[in-house]
Amino acid sequence: MTSLNQTFVALADPTRRAILDVLIKKGGQSITQLRTVNEDITRQAFEKHVGVLISARVVIKRKKGRESMVKVAPSAFMDVALWMKHYEKLWEHKLSKLGTYLDRD
Question: Quick one: DSSP state of residue 12?
């Protein structure tokens, strides 16, 4: 699986997106701190979600004493940004047409 595909698979789940949201807002967090994102699932299931993010290289895991710390790996989103760039012309054209239409009134 390509890194782009792995990134999209990792982002497909709402729990994993919530984990990323917390990491983006608060910076590096321990797995224990992140656990508050979704306490409705088991610890093992939560750690599996974190594992998917790590495998996709969307987050980086480091040991700090006895804690496992994770933080966002911004470079993972470069592939997504480059892929999206191909489609930018589609929405730019549509938004331009919408702007023209709205300016007529």
Answer: T
The domains of the chain are located at 3-76
Q: What DSSP element (H or E) covers 33?
A: helix 31-34
User: Rounded distance, CA 77 to CA 57, Å?
Assistant: 10
Q: What is the spatial order of strands in the sheet that 59-64 belongs to?
A: 29-30, 67-72, 59-64
How do residues 32-65 score in pLDDT, each as one tens digit?
A: 888 888 888 898 999 999 999 999 999 999 998 9
Looking at CATH, the fold of the domain delimited by 3-76 is given as Arc Repressor Mutant, subunit A (1.10.10)
Give mean pLDDT, residues 70-93. Answer: 85
Q: Which helix (H) or strand (E) holds 93?
A: helix 88-103
Q: Enter the DSSP assignment of 66.
A: T
